[in-house]
Amino acid sequence: MPTYAYACTACDHRFDAVQSFSEDSLTLCPECGGALRKQYGSVGVTFNGSGFYRTDSRANAGAPASGSASSKAEKSTAAAPAPAATPASS
Fold first, then answer.
1. Cα 69 to Cα 55: distance, rounded to the nearest angstrom
2. d(CA 30, CA 2)
3. In what order do the strands lie in the sheet with 14-18?
4. Is this prediction's pTM over 0.85?
5. Of the listed ranges 30-39, 64-73, 75-84, the one predicted with least confidence
6. Pairing state between β 3-8 and 36-39
7. Rounded to 10 degrees, what is the CA torsion of 75, 78, 81, 84?
8. What are the CA-CA distances from residue 2 to residues 5, 17, 33, 40, 60 (Å)?
9. Mean pLDDT across 6-25
10. Please, what sign has the CA dihedral across residues 7, 37, 1, 48?
11. Confidence of residue 75 (pLDDT cuts 50, 70, 90)
12. What CA–CA distance (Å, rounded) separates 23 from 30?
């Protein structure tokens, strides 16, 4: 069941309520009896894997992706410290 966030318009009391989709929204604040308003926040959804990018469905989908795979490899090698240079002999 989803969890909904509510805030009172009178006393600014905030709380979460677990309700099913078929239940009516809450309308009265449990603290002061004032009117409630549902709070909408950002949803943390991340799409990972193949099939979520526009370029994945192109005609050359069998070819390895040059964008994300190569940039990941570049980032991992760039993050590694460079080996110490040996002093040049004169």
1. 13
2. 20
3. 14-18, 3-8, 36-39
4. no
5. 64-73
6. antiparallel
7. 160
8. 10, 8, 24, 13, 41
9. 93
10. negative
11. low
12. 17
